[in-house]
């Protein structure tokens, strides 16, 4: 029967005042919710990168005030590092920006990164000079047959791309495992932290 009482309440929807603060390393969305309490607010991030913000509070015995906002998180934000904090009647949603990947300069990066960034370039086949046949003999100039040259080239260069590909696959698997672990740690930490909503 308590559920019927909830349906009898009138809901007044409103659009809270929102301010964006854009910085070099992060963006902050400030939402003014003066008469709300932290327990009356909810901030969620969907798997599709949509930030859902909503809240509901009683106005009197028969009315409630509520709002709902959805914000698509841009690809230049680090979704796993988004935080929300409610303080002094304002909800602050901090969205750190992703750091751009900087390629190593002239061998100054890690050896593994330098190896994965390089694409194999085929070495040009060495031309053997054909000296004119000696006038007195029927000796043929020594040249390498095209089939032999191709197999020699594949023998040298064919293994390198496969080895690089294997190294990239191992590095990618390790990265996925590390990201999964950090997401697990993040979710368990967020559940314990009382100051943060998301």
TrEMBL record:
| Membrane-traversing stretches | 165-186
Task: Name the UniProt key words of this record, in alphabetical order.
Answer: Cell membrane, Membrane, Plant defense, Transmembrane, Transmembrane helix
Looking at the keywords, is Transmembrane helix present?
yes
Domain SHSP intervals: 8-112
**One Pfam family of this chain:** HSP20
Membrane association type: Single-pass membrane protein
The subcellular location is:
Cell membrane
What broad class describes the main subcellular location of this protein?
Answer: membrane
Tell me yes or no: is Cell membrane among this UniProt entry's keywords. yes
Quick one: where's region Disordered?
101-152
> InterPro entries, per this entry?
A-crystallin/Hsp20_dom (IPR002068), HSP20-like_chaperone (IPR008978)
Signal peptide residue numbers: none
Please cite one Gene Ontology biological process associated with this protein. Answer: cellular response to heat
Give a GO cellular-component term: plasma membrane
The entry assigns this protein to a family as follows:
Belongs to the small heat shock protein (HSP20) family.
> PANTHER family annotated for this entry?
HEAT SHOCK PROTEIN 26 (PTHR43670), HSP20_ALPHA CRYSTALLIN FAMILY PROTEIN (PTHR43670:SF118)
Q: What is this protein called?
A: SHSP domain-containing protein
Which organism is the protein's source? Sesamum angustifolium
